[in-house]
Automatic annotation (TrEMBL):
Species of the source: Longibacter salinarum
GO biological process: L-histidine biosynthetic process
Pathway: Amino-acid biosynthesis; L-histidine biosynthesis; L-histidine from 5-phospho-alpha-D-ribose 1-diphosphate: step 2/9; Amino-acid biosynthesis; L-histidine biosynthesis; L-histidine from 5-phospho-alpha-D-ribose 1-diphosphate: step 3/9
EC number, as in UniProt: 3.5.4.19
Entry note: cofactor: Binds 1 zinc ion per subunit.
Similarity section: Belongs to the PRA-CH family. In the C-terminal section; belongs to the PRA-PH family.
Protein's recorded name: Phosphoribosyl-AMP cyclohydrolase
Keyword rRNA-binding applies: no
Binding site for Zn(2+): C82, C98, C105
Superkingdom, natural source: Bacteria
Enzyme class, broadest EC rank: hydrolase
GO molecular function: magnesium ion binding; phosphoribosyl-AMP cyclohydrolase activity; phosphoribosyl-ATP diphosphatase activity; zinc ion binding
Gene Ontology cellular component terms for the protein in this record: cytoplasm
Length: 130
């Protein structure tokens, strides 16, 4: 996807744990789908392959989006913020982005009565992760 991904890494500021926030939005609708973290290796893999690849903080391992569920993300564009400490990816989303089966991880909205689930379910997580 990017011919020389290493040149782009110079402008990214990784935190003390070696991570950078990656905000992901749908290329067609601009809906924010999720936020995850990347380390230098997973960012380089993403830039080289065009397939979103993250660092799982809970599992302490590389996580290629869709490897288990089939709900993949193909990079359309990437931007870095002014400080270099956050990335914004525009992706072609196949299936849902959220492990709960929702289209977006931001499916709960604050109301006077608490959180309201107003998101769209697009797959069965029990089937995807069995």
């Amino acid at each position: 996807m990017i011919d020389q991904p290493a040149a782009l890494l110079d402008d990214v500021r990784f935190d003390e744990d070696g991570l950078v926030a990656a905000i992901v939005q749908d290329a067609e609708t601009n809906e924010v789908l999720m936020m995850a973290y990347m380390n230098e290796q997973t960012l380089e893999m993403t830039l080289e392959t065009g397939r979103m690849t993250y660092w799982s903080r809970s599992r302490q391992e590389i996580w290629i989006k869709g490897a288990t569920s089939g709900n993949t993300q193909k990079v359309e564009s990437v931007h870095v913020d002014c400080d270099g400490d956050a990335l914004l990816f525009s992706v072609a989303q196949k299936g849902g982005a959220c492990h709960t089966g929702h289209q977006s991880c931001f499916y709960r909205r604050a109301t006077a009565d608490g959180w309201k689930d107003d998101g769209q379910m697009v797959f069965d997580p029990d089937e995807a992760y069995s």
